[in-house]
Amino acid sequence: MKKYLKTLFVLVLGISVSCTEDNGISEPETATLKVDSQEITISGDNVRREITFTCDGSWEAATDSEWIKLETVSGPASSEQQYVFFTPEDNTAGKERTGIVEITAKNAYAAIMITQIPTSDNSISNLFTSVMEENFSKVRICAHRANTYSGIFKHHYPENSIPAIEHCIALGIDMAEIDVRKTKDGVLVCLHDSNIKNVTNGSGEVASMTYAEVCQYDMKSREKDVVSPGVKIPTLEEMLLACKDRIWVNLDLSKTTIPAREIMQVIEKTGMLDQVTCYTGSSADLGKEYYEIDNRISIHLSVSSTSAIGNIAGTKSVPLFQINTAKYWDGTSASSDLSNAIRKRGYCTFSNLLNYDKKVRDGNIDALKAFCDAKIDFLQTDYGDHANIVNYLKERGLR
């Protein structure tokens, strides 16, 4: 990095603006540099981070470490916040790395410490990396609303419930899809419908009820109408804590009007930032809302064409694309063009077996075969533990 001053009083993680000797380079008389983010810790691979600062003079920033991908950038004076974005290279297994982003503002100087820590074994980014590297040697199962065949028909566990999640974990299901709603008093709960009548022994629009009112009722199985005494609709916080370090979570946020900030606060509070993928339907804009709050969050989008991939494919936290089931599958054959395009660009594929669950249960595995032929990495189903699904995947060496 080019040095402007012969003597710098550098405070790592802070700023020193005292300096005189000019090293033969013409320097303006004054400049004030204020850095708001003084230390940044990175967890995860290829994550874009940022430093925010204000500067009343022109500035230049560069890095002293090859693993931090930041070319020298510069900017003019501004009283508004300015930004330096950087992206770390791939993480080194089991090691921690530290580098410095240096910002000079005429005769002011800031050195910002950047620490990159290895991803944990439970990181969802590690999961997606493994899936891509395996090149379709295994199909992962996502339990729709935390449902499983035995959970529904043997144990009568309510969907989106803690008992259903515990059963998924016991079965070795890879991921659980969970829905989110908000009560009248602002509590985020795990519920698919707007009304509680199909999954509890009560009724009422959840948005018009307080959480205490919701908890007056016990949950029940939607399919069999069997009540589970004492089992309440869980809060999102309770659900994420039950899943933490035990199963990956796919939060279905495609139809919710809950502000992204409120969802993210619960994800961050529970320490699940690296174990959740947020499904925002086909809305790249909604996905970007989550990404802009914290660009470490995984975003999961639905696409029905190769052009749709480009809407957000450059965003580092989008490792997974869901293929629009209705357009690409008829239960007997599949168009693999979109799947191939997604995989060629280095992303994972996801799709729903839901429309064909009952056929597969009854012995018609044509749809399941079509999904596997098209190399769909993640299959979402209500019957992930059914023998017809498990045995077919095992026969093909995919489970």
Spatial order of the strands in the main sheet?
A: 11-12-15-16-17-18-19-20
Low-confidence segments: 1-29
Mean pLDDT over the full residue set: 84
Number of helices: 13
Tell me about the largest β-sheet: 8 strands, parallel, barrel
Computed CA radius of gyration, to the nearest angstrom: 25 Å
Query: What's the number of extended β-strand segments?
Result: 20
Principal-axes shape call: globular
Strand content: 15-25%
Written overview of the protein:
The chain contains 13 helices and 20 strands. It has 399 residues and is an alpha/beta fold. Helix 3 packs parallel to helix 5. The N and C termini lie far apart (51 Å).
Summarize the helices and strands and which ones pair or pack:
Layout: E1 15-16, E2 33-35, E3 39-43, E4 49-55, E5 59-63, E6 68-69, E7 73-75, E8 78-88, E9 97-105, E10 108-117, H1 124-134, E11 140-143, H2 149-153, H3 162-171, E12 175-179, E13 181-182, E14 188-189, H4 211-214, H5 236-243, E15 248-252, H6 260-269, E16 276-279, H7 284-293, E17 298-303, H8 306-309, E18 320-323, H9 325-328, H10 337-344, E19 348-352, H11 357-361, H12 366-373, E20 378-381, H13 387-395
Parallel strand pairs: 3-10, 11-12, 11-20, 12-15, 15-16, 16-17, 17-18, 18-19, 19-20
Antiparallel strand pairs: 1-10, 2-4, 4-8, 5-7, 5-9, 6-8, 9-10, 13-14
Helix pairs in contact: 3-5
